[in-house]
Structure formats: C-alpha cells, structure tokens
Design brief:
Blueprint: E1 2-6, E2 13-17, E3 22-24, E4 31-33, E5 41-43, H1 46-66, H2 79-88, H3 93-108, H4 113-119, H5 128-137, E6 141-145, E7 148-151
Antiparallel strand pairs: 1-2, 1-5, 3-4, 6-7
Helix pairs in contact: 2-3, 2-4
Bound molecules: zinc ion.
Zinc ion (ZN) binds next to loops.
C-alpha cells in the first residue's frame, strides 16, 4: 500500500510505501516517521499515487499563494517625526529642546514653530509656541527673522 504524506518540515507532499517505518524527505532531508505521519491518500496503484502526490503538491502551493501577504514594512518616518522619536529619549527638558533646535537648524537652516510642532507631535507636553518662548528665553535659539528660528 502506498500513501501520500506531507513533510512536516518543508511542507512538501511525497509518496511513500506505507509498509516502511521511515522515509527521508527528498527536499529537506528530514526523517519522517511513516507510521505516525498523516496519510492524505492511500492506494495500491503507483500511477494513482503519482497523481495524488501531484494534486497534493498543487493544493499545498495554492495554500501558500493564498496565504495573507507579509505585512508591509512600516512607512518611513519623515525627518520631523524621526527627530521627535530621538528627542523623546532625551530626559532633561532643556537638553531635549537644545537637541531639537540644533537638528532643525542643521537640517533646515531656519525653522518655524510649525516645524517644531511636527517634531513634538508625539510629546504630551507644551505646545510649540510655548516651547519657542522657552527656547528664546533660555538662549537656545534666536530669531533671525519674523517667525524664523535658529539654534545658537
Ligand atoms: Zn521536507
């Protein structure tokens, strides 16, 4: 008696002589315990066995194809978002503001309160205008033009 079994390791169908105790998977080399393996089809005919293996293989590959697609990689963060993520790890409030101001200045030259607002979106503290005031008064930034800021 022959049977169709599926390799538990590489998920490929193959035909075996069910009277043998073990079979080696031709694809991955795994030893399969035939006595314990789930038999998907039994036949005495070798040609029927070949047909059954072929059908099982088709079914298995169809399952793989219809499996849900791998989740897409997370969208790349914008410069502002990424800066926000990095700044969030800085503990001291003034150190953090200095870090943000310096990075915004390096990247943009001059930055506005909107730039700052985008960076601090993930923070749950003060709004951008307040922080600009704080940065101006503590000498972290200056205002080279109306509404434009740069780190000192
Ligand atoms: Zn295998």
């Amino acid at each position: 008696m022959f049977g169709v079994i599926v390799c538990p390791s590489c998920n490929r169908a193959r035909g075996v002589d069910l009277s043998t105790a073990a079979a080696t998977c031709p694809s991955c080399g795994k030893r399969i315990n035939v006595k314990k393996a789930k038999v998907y089809f039994k036949t005495d005919s070798e040609s029927e066995l070949a047909e059954a293996v072929r059908k099982m293989s088709e079914r298995l590959s169809a399952d793989v194809e219809s499996a849900p697609p791998v989740r897409k990689k997370r969208r790349k963060l914008s410069f502002h978002e990424e800066l926000g993520v990095r700044a969030k790890k800085i503990k001291g409030s003034e150190d953090r503001l200095r870090f943000v101001a310096e990075n915004l200045s390096v990247e943009l030259g001059e930055f506005s309160s909107e730039d700052l607002a985008m960076v601090i979106k993930g923070f749950d503290e003060a709004d951008a205008e307040d922080l600009i005031e704080k940065m101006l008064s503590s000498g972290i930034i200056f205002e080279p033009g109306p509404g434009k800021y740069r780190s000192i």
